[in-house]
Design brief:
By secondary structure, this protein is of the alpha/beta class. The chain has a domain of about 180 residues: Aspartate Aminotransferase, domain 2, CATH 3.40.640. It contains seven helices and seven strands, in the order H-H-H-E-H-E-H-E-H-E-H-E-E-E. The protein has a seven-stranded mixed sheet, with helices on both faces. Helix 4 crosses helix 5.
Protein backbone atom coordinates (compact mmCIF):
# COMPACT_ATOMS: atom_id res chain seq x y z
CA UNK A 1 0.00 0.00 0.00
CA UNK A 2 1.41 3.36 -1.03
CA UNK A 3 0.90 6.38 1.19
CA UNK A 4 1.48 10.02 0.31
CA UNK A 5 3.53 12.07 2.70
CA UNK A 6 2.22 15.46 3.77
CA UNK A 7 5.44 16.48 5.48
CA UNK A 8 6.85 19.81 4.29
CA UNK A 9 10.44 20.66 5.06
CA UNK A 10 10.79 24.42 5.43
CA UNK A 11 14.31 25.93 5.21
CA UNK A 12 15.43 28.61 7.63
CA UNK A 13 14.08 32.07 6.88
CA UNK A 14 17.56 33.36 6.09
CA UNK A 15 17.72 31.07 3.06
CA UNK A 16 14.78 32.87 1.46
CA UNK A 17 16.87 36.05 1.50
CA UNK A 18 19.42 34.73 -0.99
CA UNK A 19 19.37 33.51 -4.56
CA UNK A 20 21.48 31.05 -6.50
CA UNK A 21 25.11 32.14 -6.75
CA UNK A 22 25.37 34.49 -9.74
CA UNK A 23 28.33 32.71 -11.36
CA UNK A 24 26.72 29.30 -10.82
CA UNK A 25 23.71 30.43 -12.85
CA UNK A 26 25.84 31.98 -15.59
CA UNK A 27 28.17 28.97 -15.88
CA UNK A 28 25.15 26.69 -16.30
CA UNK A 29 23.86 28.94 -19.08
CA UNK A 30 27.27 28.86 -20.77
CA UNK A 31 27.37 25.06 -20.53
CA UNK A 32 23.94 24.83 -22.15
CA UNK A 33 25.01 27.11 -25.01
CA UNK A 34 28.21 25.15 -25.55
CA UNK A 35 26.17 21.93 -25.67
CA UNK A 36 24.11 23.50 -28.45
CA UNK A 37 27.27 24.11 -30.49
CA UNK A 38 27.97 27.73 -29.56
CA UNK A 39 31.54 28.90 -29.02
CA UNK A 40 31.29 30.98 -25.85
CA UNK A 41 34.07 33.21 -24.55
CA UNK A 42 33.33 33.42 -20.84
CA UNK A 43 34.01 36.74 -19.12
CA UNK A 44 32.56 35.41 -15.88
CA UNK A 45 34.31 33.96 -12.88
CA UNK A 46 37.83 34.33 -14.29
CA UNK A 47 39.21 30.86 -13.60
CA UNK A 48 42.82 30.34 -14.71
CA UNK A 49 43.35 28.56 -18.02
CA UNK A 50 46.97 27.57 -17.31
CA UNK A 51 48.47 25.26 -14.69
CA UNK A 52 50.64 26.40 -11.79
CA UNK A 53 54.41 26.36 -12.23
CA UNK A 54 55.77 22.86 -12.76
CA UNK A 55 57.81 23.06 -9.53
CA UNK A 56 54.60 23.66 -7.56
CA UNK A 57 52.97 20.57 -9.06
CA UNK A 58 56.09 18.49 -8.37
CA UNK A 59 56.14 19.64 -4.75
CA UNK A 60 52.47 18.74 -4.34
CA UNK A 61 53.12 15.27 -5.76
CA UNK A 62 56.10 14.73 -3.46
CA UNK A 63 54.17 15.84 -0.37
CA UNK A 64 51.09 13.79 -1.31
CA UNK A 65 53.28 10.66 -1.41
CA UNK A 66 54.22 11.07 2.27
CA UNK A 67 52.00 8.92 4.51
CA UNK A 68 51.89 11.50 7.30
CA UNK A 69 50.30 14.26 5.21
CA UNK A 70 46.72 13.00 5.03
CA UNK A 71 45.32 13.56 8.51
CA UNK A 72 43.50 16.58 9.94
CA UNK A 73 45.65 19.66 10.18
CA UNK A 74 45.62 22.12 13.11
CA UNK A 75 42.73 24.55 12.96
CA UNK A 76 45.17 27.42 12.52
CA UNK A 77 47.16 25.63 9.80
CA UNK A 78 50.57 24.03 10.10
CA UNK A 79 53.38 26.33 11.33
CA UNK A 80 55.34 25.93 8.07
CA UNK A 81 52.39 27.24 6.04
CA UNK A 82 51.83 30.26 8.29
CA UNK A 83 55.54 31.10 8.20
CA UNK A 84 55.55 30.86 4.40
CA UNK A 85 52.55 33.17 4.23
CA UNK A 86 54.24 35.66 6.54
CA UNK A 87 57.43 35.53 4.44
CA UNK A 88 55.32 36.10 1.31
CA UNK A 89 53.70 39.21 2.79
CA UNK A 90 57.08 40.56 3.84
CA UNK A 91 58.69 39.88 0.45
CA UNK A 92 55.99 41.35 -1.76
CA UNK A 93 54.24 43.93 0.42
CA UNK A 94 56.89 44.85 2.97
CA UNK A 95 54.39 43.92 5.71
CA UNK A 96 55.63 42.05 8.78
CA UNK A 97 53.12 39.56 10.21
CA UNK A 98 53.47 37.30 13.23
CA UNK A 99 52.84 33.83 11.75
CA UNK A 100 51.67 32.50 15.12
CA UNK A 101 49.02 35.13 15.88
CA UNK A 102 48.23 37.27 12.82
CA UNK A 103 47.59 34.73 10.03
CA UNK A 104 44.70 32.31 9.52
CA UNK A 105 44.87 29.98 6.48
CA UNK A 106 41.63 29.66 4.51
CA UNK A 107 40.27 27.33 1.87
CA UNK A 108 39.52 30.39 -0.27
CA UNK A 109 38.07 33.85 0.19
CA UNK A 110 34.45 32.68 0.44
CA UNK A 111 35.24 30.93 3.73
CA UNK A 112 36.77 34.13 5.05
CA UNK A 113 33.87 36.30 3.85
CA UNK A 114 31.38 34.03 5.61
CA UNK A 115 33.23 33.73 8.90
CA UNK A 116 34.19 37.42 9.10
CA UNK A 117 30.53 38.30 8.58
CA UNK A 118 29.30 35.83 11.20
CA UNK A 119 31.97 37.00 13.64
CA UNK A 120 31.12 40.71 13.47
CA UNK A 121 27.50 41.06 12.33
CA UNK A 122 24.47 40.50 14.53
CA UNK A 123 21.06 40.38 12.84
CA UNK A 124 20.11 43.92 11.88
CA UNK A 125 23.65 45.32 11.99
CA UNK A 126 24.70 47.41 9.00
CA UNK A 127 27.32 46.37 6.46
CA UNK A 128 28.78 48.48 3.63
CA UNK A 129 28.91 46.60 0.32
CA UNK A 130 30.37 48.05 -2.91
CA UNK A 131 28.20 48.36 -6.01
CA UNK A 132 29.38 47.01 -8.39
CA UNK A 133 31.17 44.33 -6.43
CA UNK A 134 31.68 40.64 -5.78
CA UNK A 135 28.19 39.09 -5.32
CA UNK A 136 29.30 37.01 -2.33
CA UNK A 137 29.54 40.10 -0.10
CA UNK A 138 25.80 40.60 -0.57
CA UNK A 139 24.69 36.97 -0.29
CA UNK A 140 26.73 36.30 2.83
CA UNK A 141 25.52 39.53 4.46
CA UNK A 142 21.96 38.34 3.87
CA UNK A 143 22.77 34.97 5.41
CA UNK A 144 24.05 36.85 8.46
CA UNK A 145 20.73 38.75 8.47
CA UNK A 146 22.57 42.07 8.32
CA UNK A 147 21.21 45.26 6.77
CA UNK A 148 23.06 45.99 3.53
CA UNK A 149 24.06 49.55 2.69
CA UNK A 150 25.39 49.67 -0.86
CA UNK A 151 27.93 52.35 -1.63
CA UNK A 152 28.13 53.18 -5.31
CA UNK A 153 31.39 53.08 -7.25
CA UNK A 154 31.10 55.10 -10.45
CA UNK A 155 33.25 55.68 -13.50
CA UNK A 156 33.07 59.43 -12.82
CA UNK A 157 34.44 58.78 -9.35
CA UNK A 158 37.26 56.57 -10.64
CA UNK A 159 35.54 53.51 -9.11
CA UNK A 160 36.57 54.77 -5.66
CA UNK A 161 34.32 55.26 -2.61
CA UNK A 162 32.64 58.66 -2.28
CA UNK A 163 33.52 59.50 1.31
CA UNK A 164 31.14 62.46 1.44
CA UNK A 165 28.29 60.12 0.51
CA UNK A 166 29.47 57.57 3.07
CA UNK A 167 29.38 60.20 5.80
CA UNK A 168 25.66 60.72 5.15
CA UNK A 169 24.83 57.09 5.99
CA UNK A 170 23.76 55.98 9.52
CA UNK A 171 27.33 54.98 10.37
CA UNK A 172 26.53 54.37 14.04
CA UNK A 173 24.63 51.25 12.88
CA UNK A 174 27.35 49.96 10.53
CA UNK A 175 29.83 47.39 11.83
CA UNK A 176 31.66 46.18 8.73
CA UNK A 177 32.79 47.53 5.34
CA UNK A 178 33.84 45.39 2.38
CA UNK A 179 36.44 46.76 -0.02
CA UNK A 180 38.19 45.05 -2.93
CA UNK A 181 41.18 46.55 -4.79
CA UNK A 182 42.25 45.88 -7.46
CA UNK A 183 38.52 46.05 -7.93
CA UNK A 184 36.33 43.33 -9.35
CA UNK A 185 34.85 43.77 -11.96
CA UNK A 186 36.52 46.99 -13.18
CA UNK A 187 40.16 46.10 -12.47
CA UNK A 188 40.77 49.51 -10.87
CA UNK A 189 43.99 49.38 -8.82
CA UNK A 190 44.33 50.74 -5.33
CA UNK A 191 46.64 53.48 -4.11
CA UNK A 192 48.17 53.97 -0.70
CA UNK A 193 46.33 57.30 -0.54
CA UNK A 194 42.99 55.52 -0.98
CA UNK A 195 43.91 52.90 1.61
CA UNK A 196 44.91 55.63 4.07
CA UNK A 197 41.50 57.32 3.62
CA UNK A 198 39.68 54.02 4.13
CA UNK A 199 41.64 53.20 7.30
CA UNK A 200 41.00 56.69 8.67
CA UNK A 201 37.28 56.29 7.88
CA UNK A 202 37.13 52.94 9.67
CA UNK A 203 38.91 54.29 12.74
CA UNK A 204 36.74 57.41 12.88
CA UNK A 205 33.52 55.39 12.92
CA UNK A 206 34.73 52.18 14.62
CA UNK A 207 33.98 50.11 11.50
CA UNK A 208 35.86 46.91 10.66
CA UNK A 209 37.40 47.21 7.19
CA UNK A 210 37.55 43.86 5.37
CA UNK A 211 39.77 43.98 2.28
CA UNK A 212 39.49 41.17 -0.27
CA UNK A 213 42.84 41.26 -2.08
CA UNK A 214 43.17 38.36 -4.56
CA UNK A 215 44.06 40.46 -7.62
CA UNK A 216 47.05 42.50 -6.46
CA UNK A 217 49.52 40.61 -8.70
CA UNK A 218 47.39 40.70 -11.86
CA UNK A 219 48.90 43.08 -14.49
CA UNK A 220 50.38 45.02 -11.60
CA UNK A 221 54.07 45.62 -11.05
CA UNK A 222 53.58 47.10 -7.57
CA UNK A 223 51.19 44.95 -5.51
CA UNK A 224 49.66 46.73 -2.53
CA UNK A 225 48.24 45.58 0.79
CA UNK A 226 45.89 47.54 3.01
CA UNK A 227 48.12 46.46 5.89
CA UNK A 228 50.89 48.70 4.54
CA UNK A 229 49.02 51.63 6.09
CA UNK A 230 50.20 52.51 9.61
CA UNK A 231 47.61 51.41 12.15
CA UNK A 232 45.53 49.48 9.61
CA UNK A 233 45.71 46.30 11.66
CA UNK A 234 43.81 48.01 14.48
CA UNK A 235 40.57 47.84 12.48
CA UNK A 236 41.35 45.95 9.25
CA UNK A 237 41.27 42.37 8.03
CA UNK A 238 42.84 41.39 4.71
CA UNK A 239 42.23 38.22 2.75
CA UNK A 240 44.51 36.91 0.05
CA UNK A 241 44.55 33.91 -2.24
CA UNK A 242 46.67 31.80 -4.55
CA UNK A 243 43.72 31.26 -6.92
CA UNK A 244 44.11 34.14 -9.35
CA UNK A 245 47.76 35.08 -9.03
CA UNK A 246 49.26 31.57 -9.11
CA UNK A 247 46.77 29.62 -11.30
CA UNK A 248 45.71 27.58 -8.26
CA UNK A 249 41.96 28.20 -8.07
CA UNK A 250 41.14 24.52 -7.51
CA UNK A 251 43.76 24.11 -4.79
CA UNK A 252 41.77 26.21 -2.28
CA UNK A 253 44.74 28.00 -0.71
CA UNK A 254 44.01 31.36 0.85
CA UNK A 255 44.67 33.32 4.01
CA UNK A 256 43.44 36.03 6.31
CA UNK A 257 45.67 38.55 8.09
CA UNK A 258 44.84 40.88 10.94
CA UNK A 259 45.78 41.65 14.54
CA UNK A 260 45.67 38.75 17.03
Amino acid sequence: MKSESTTQIVPAKRVSEIQEYYFSRRLREVAQLNAQGADIISLGIGGPDRPPHSSVISTLADEAAKPGNHSYQPYVGIPQLRRAMADWYNRWYGVTLNPDTEIQPLIGSKEGILHVSLAFLNPGDGVLVPNPGYPTYTSVSRLAQAEIFNYDLTEEGGWMPDFDALERLPLDRIKLMWINYPHMPTGTPASLELFEKIVAFGKKHNIVIAHDNPYSFILNEKPLSLLQVDGARDIAIEMNSMSKSHNMAGWRVGMLASNP
